[in-house]
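Title: Comparing notes on inverse folding

I've been comparing how different people in this forum approach sequence design from structure. To keep things fair, I'm posting one structure and asking everyone to reply with a full sequence. Here's the target:
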């Protein structure tokens, strides 16, 4: 939902607006500043949930959870058997790529490292010292990061 100058005109006594999320992209900050309306956000909104979900999706893909799930959904469930797939591999043999090392990126990286000792690789030039201290590899450009990904 956007909040622009026309919307602001509907609230002549508005003093504060709080965006339930991390950014201000949906607010007309120029119009709000002209009216001296204080703008707030919730900087860590969804950080844990998004980091958890990112890791859950990576685990589902890499361990074949959805592949096995689909085999069991048939009329007669399939017997357990090893399913040959290039996607199902050990986590420790791969890089968990992260674009950005803000709140969410850092939370996801810590989860990946704690869960499987996964090697983390990310793009975030301003925090290169942090990546070295935690034993992660930082890349200055996306092409360099993707070039290091094992297939």
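Reply #1:
Here's my take.
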């Amino acid at each position: 939902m956007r909040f622009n100058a026309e919307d602001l005109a509907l609230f002549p006594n508005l003093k504060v607006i709080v965006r339930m999320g991390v950014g201000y992209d949906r607010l007309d900050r120029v119009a709000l500043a002209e009216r001296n309306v204080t703008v707030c956000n919730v900087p860590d909104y969804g950080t844990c949930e998004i980091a958890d979900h990112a890791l859950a999706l990576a685990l589902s893909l890499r361990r074949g959870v959805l592949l096995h799930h689909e085999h069991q959904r048939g009329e007669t469930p399939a017997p357990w058997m090893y399913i040959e797939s290039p996607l199902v591999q050990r986590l420790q043999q791969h890089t968990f790529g992260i674009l950005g090392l803000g709140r969410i990126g850092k939370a996801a990286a810590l989860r990946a490292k704690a869960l499987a000792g996964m090697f983390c690789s990310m793009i975030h030039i301003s925090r290169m010292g942090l990546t070295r201290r935690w034993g992660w590899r930082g890349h200055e450009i996306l092409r360099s990061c993707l070039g290091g990904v094992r297939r």
